[in-house]
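BUG-327 | component: ligand-complex export | severity: low

The export step for pyridoxal-5'-phosphate jobs runs without errors, but we want the raw record kept on the ticket for reference. Input record follows.
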Amino acid sequence: MRWTLDTGWHGREVRPYGPLTLDPAAAVLHYAQEIFEGIKAYRHADGSVWTFRPEKNAERFRRSARRLALPELSDEDFIGSLKALLAQDHTWVPTPKSAADECSLYLRPFMIASEKFLGVRPAHEVDYYVIASPAAAYFKGGVEPVSIWLSSHYNRAAPGGTGFAKCGGNYAASLAAQKEASAHDCGQVAFLDARENKWIEELGGMNLFFVFKDGRIATPRLTDTILEGVTRDSVLTLARDEGLSPEERPISIDEWREGAASGEITEVFACGTAAVITPVGELVTEEGHIRLAAGSDNPIAKRLRTKLLDLQYGRAEDTHGWLTKLV
Ligand SMILES: *Cc1c(COP(=O)(O)O)cnc(C)c1O
């Protein structure tokens, strides 16, 4: 689909995958006026194909669009684009061989400023696309706990910035920290707040949860420096369903360190569409490792993960009305 200042959205079409033609002066290549989404299509046992809470992604895409001064897309166009692509390409949605087979079709909607214009202002010509790729489980090790690097030189987001928007620029800014993580054998980076370097925000592309020994489960309260994950929101609801007490509040790096040492914190996990729910085994920092004293087997993370996957793959009743049929 294409948007122009004069005409609005038009030119809805599905066409074969292939390279784009962009003018070298296209604004996105210079000023990063770009946003994206990530959502999956799941094949159910009866062969039908479903997606999970797409109206949440549509709403977030509009939030991101407003922050990046891009035009907003309606629910109808956003969800309609997924349906239009799947009507054509549904055979690319893999069929799980068992409940342990977390295959899906990953969908990547994105919007770019395509106007050729080197001046600095919101583009008057914008393109929207959605591409897809079959995907297996995100982490090769399955539900094995992962090691996370704590970034102490870089922040992902700052107050008043673009942290809450899903934009390529945030990811570009996180790559130097990602490189540090790799050098320390960590797959992901945890970021602290930019003002005090004290409050836990999230990973480069996943939200964080902490499980306490008394059944409380906490995630950092949303601010404009945290990306509101659809998985995060779903975990809060599923945790309540499971009789846990979810909390959204500030969590400091000291609370993590002390809670891990004392056994007060029994599990830490990361969550997002790509990796679902993944236990965090240790936090690697410049001052040493933070490991859970309990050496947890992560029962809560595993239970929530199974609940979420059973819903997404149609193995459990959709009591929250979270599924939308695509094909
Ligand atoms: C996409 C993303 C998440 C996870 O969001 P989901 O909707 O759960 O996939 C978390 N943090 C960041 C920075 C993200 O870009």
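Assignee comment: Attached the raw record above. The pocket of pyridoxal-5'-phosphate is lined by residues 38, 166, 202, 205-207, 227, 229-232, 272-273 (CB under 6 Å).
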